[in-house]
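Morning - adenosine-5'-diphosphate inputs below, output right after.
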Amino acid sequence: LELSAIPMRMSENEEQGLLLVLQDVTAIRRLEKMRSEFVANVSHELKTPVAAVKGFAETLLNGAMDDRETAQSFLTIIHDESDRLNRLIGDILELSKIESRRSTLQFSPVDLHVFLERMTEFMATEAAKKNIGLELQAEEELFIEADEDRLGQILLNLLQNGINYTPEGGKVKVKAEFIPGTESESDEEGADDRVRITVSDTGIGIPRKDLPRIFERFYRVDKARSRSSGGTGLGLSIVKHLAELHHGTIRVESTVGVGSHFILELPLLQP
Ligand code: ADP
């Protein structure tokens, strides 16, 4: 709580009293704290790859270049870390654009079956590299109103995670189904009908204690694992924001060692 006192005067020299204002600043402080934490996190995340690039470049300059094999492996690291830096910067810009609502969405009707087929086709090569089966099961005639590019970002993020966090030979499945709204007299018929898109995998799963935090920026269950799979720790927070911009919700159910379900629900487009 913050207290401020404002003197109240009726005429020039006369002090009539004080107006005391007691303001609850919890929300403001929390926002400030979140913002400064985010800046600290961003700096830390950016410093790591920069330090690697600098360190390996220096070692090369100090003589490691003479050994061809060493040089090759150090240059590969420098190359990969630069890629990582690029992805990080891209994701940070993306997130800040979405959060400041500077990105306006271009909504149009989307045929989910057609759309999801395109998404799974797009990820097929990536899945095949790990011998992961990619399966689609989508009802026909499901239409939603969406920004196709942004919806694509959601799906590709979830599919990429499914593949990243599933061991070789596993399965990733996309399912789309109609969810009827709750009947209510005052509502227009079908007003809150939805579609549910579930991306499931037979992967490593997420420990119970981490589930509530999984959509936070830079939150990872296992930093090393996320790093080695090329993750930035920002994917799911971007997904969550984009789902909300589509008036939808996203949640997760997961069991360690069994797999995860990411469940996206969006309003159905009434015919
Ligand atoms: P990252 O770039 O690290 O994958 P995300 O924001 O996409 O970042 O996900 C945050 C964290 O959530 C990941 O680091 C991982 O620990 C966990 N996670 C996300 N998707 C899955 C999944 N399908 N299976 C298991 N863990 C997952």
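Note: The first strand starts at residue 2 and ends at 9.

O.
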